């Protein structure tokens, strides 16, 4: 499934112009990105939380050459699925 | 930022839509992603990231309180991988 499919499904629900719906969908993801960029947390109830975490610098090793390198401190983002989503994904698939 | 704040912000910039419409689009979006995950599909949103389901095998665990051995059933876990753009935008030095 791609963004185009998501736009299609949303368009069927809301009606009006597909271009406008597409704009809103883009804006939703853009808003989430901007918020995370600022170091914020985005909580989508019933779905999950998008959180930015800071990682300290650490020593690593290039697995191919065995050479030691320093992995700089950085910020990464993680997604923590809500209990609801976890249950939903597992439901009725036995 | 919560789901309602996300709706609020997107609605304030989308003049063609009422807040109710935006609310509907946002819920449809996350519901469709959840439905798709349940089917075991992968959802790819360019510039944002991709969602997929990872399988976890059954394993034997232990109840940490009673020490009793139990079997943890195989399950499926929702997983998000940040896209290149999101990764780069989040990783800004503090």
Protein architecture, described:
The complex is a heterodimer of chains A (94) and B (94). Chain A has 94 residues and is an alpha+beta fold. The model of chain A has no long low-confidence stretch (mean pLDDT 90). Chain A has three helices and five strands, in the order H-H-E-E-E-E-E-H. The relative contact order of chain A is 0.12. In chain A, 43% of the residues lie in helices and 29% in strands. Chain A has two domains: 1-38, IHF-like DNA-binding proteins (HU Protein, Chain A); 42-94, IHF-like DNA-binding proteins (HU Protein, Chain A, Irregular). In chain A, strands 1-2-5 form a three-stranded antiparallel beta sheet. In chain A, strands 3-4 form a two-stranded antiparallel sheet. By secondary structure, chain B is α+β, with helices and mostly antiparallel strands. Chain B folds into two domains: 1-40; 42-94, HU Protein, Chain A (Irregular), CATH 4.10.520.10. Chain B contains three helices and five strands. The longest helix of chain B is centred in the first third of the chain and has 20 residues, at 19-38. Chain B has helices at residues 3-13, 19-38, 84-90, and strands spanning 43-45, 49-56, 59-62, 69-72, 75-82. In chain B, strands 1-2-5 form a three-stranded antiparallel beta sheet. The interface between A and B is large, with 51 and 48 residues.
What's the N-to-C terminus distance of chain B? 20 Å
CA gyration radius of chain B, whole angstroms: 19 Å
CATH topology type of the largest domain in chain B: HU Protein, Chain A
| Assembly classification | heterodimer
Main sheet record of chain A: 3 strands, antiparallel
Mean pLDDT of chain A: 90
């Amino acid at each position: 499934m791609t963004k185009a499919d998501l736009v299609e499904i949303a368009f069927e629900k809301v009606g009006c112009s597909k271009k406008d719906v597409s704009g809103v969908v883009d804006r939703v993801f853009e808003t989430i990105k901007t918020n995370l960029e600022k170091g914020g947390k985005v909580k989508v109830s019933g779905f999950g939380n998008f959180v930015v975490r800071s990682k300290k610098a650490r020593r690593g090793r290039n697995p191919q050459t065995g050479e030691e390198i320093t992995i700089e401190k950085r910020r990464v983002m993680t997604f923590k699925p809500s209990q609801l989503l976890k249950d939903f994904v597992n439901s009725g698939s036995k | 930022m919560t789901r309602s704040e996300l709706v609020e912000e997107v609605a304030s910039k989308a003049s063609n839509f009422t807040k109710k419409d935006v609310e509907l689009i946002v819920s449809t979006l996350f519901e469709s992603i959840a439905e798709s995950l349940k089917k075991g599909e992968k959802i790819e949103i360019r510039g944002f990231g991709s969602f997929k389901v990872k399988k976890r095998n059954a394993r034997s665990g232990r109840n940490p309180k009673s020490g009793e051995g139990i079997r943890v059933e195989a399950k499926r876990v929702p997983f998000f991988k940040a896209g290149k753009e999101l990764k780069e935008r989040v990783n800004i030095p503090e």
